[in-house]
Fold this protein.
Amino acid sequence: MAYAAWDHPEPLALGSAPLPEYGSGSLADLLPTLAAGMAVPGMTASIAELTPADRNCVFLIDGLGWEQIKAHPADAPYLTSLLGGSRGGTGRPITAGYPATTATSLASVGTGLPPGAHGLPGYTVRNPATRELMNQLRWQPWTDPAAWQPYPTVFQLAQDAGVHCAQVSSPTFERTPLTKVALSGGTFHGRLTGEERMDLAAEQLGAADRSLVYTYYAELDGAGHRYGVDSDTWRGQLMHVDRLVQRLAEQLPPRSALYVTADHGMVDIPFDEQHRIDFDEDWELRAGVALLGGEGRARHVYAVPGAENDVLTCWREVLGEQFWVASRDEAIAAGWFGPPDSFDERVYERIGDVVAAAHDDVLIIASEREPKESAMVGNHGSMTPAEQLVPLLEVRS
């Protein structure tokens, strides 16, 4: 519920937002570090704790946050046994990047660039050319992938340098625009079951003296969104994931390193007005807003021309105790989307005039515009530890 203007406390200071570890320990730093260890030109080993290997496999499990593994040791005994060796034996996680959402994180992984450079800075963002919202996960409405994200992927650069590159994933993802802009390079191998993917990933890893293999599992995230991370369904998926990781680890060929990571964590949000603020029913938040982008915990707010300052003031007054609320320029300067000097100007108008990142267990839903998203139990996107921290578990042969 909106507070009266005279009731709200001081808004959260933007400097209190826990920034991702861009340049030293974020998802965008992982593949460049591995590729540098395989002597791929132009790559930098930014995650200093990692030791080079000739054969590297990244297994990305959608929705497997660091805090969720730690909270469920009985359901994930194998993953739990690897926690102490995370991030090169330091026992520490890495960070996803902002926002902590799938399209943004996969692009960061594949390109080795932060969101402000690769240009997928949210679940839905405004296309400056059409002034419409674009869903970057589903790529709707269509726009040219190469124009939207023009940089080569690390896989492409590694392949050009003679490294054997392969992606092993669901056949559904073989020709999607997101795969093209974020993960292309090398060969794509579609396999339906998780077990088939693990077996083929190990086979591809051993197919050359230098190999870079990526594999992916999505169903844990789906269970979290639908049922929550405290549900029996989610825990059942976690048990399955635990067995898949062990299956792959036990098949690693010599001189290999397996890295298990994720695109984001997740938090369950209660279904009441205190925790779910409905934009479609809140006249204060709607005033002066042309488009509502992003997702419940990481909003891009696009103002009617001339109303930018009024929208920022209103959102900060109404939500500033529960959200970090920044203008576009403030969010960029603060490094939310990566180091300011890495920001690509083509991305500027994709960012909201106002950017709101959740601090508390709260969502800005839109029950009429986004009925499916507004009904999700588990959510993510912001910079809290439960969403932002992801594992970098390691097994070597």
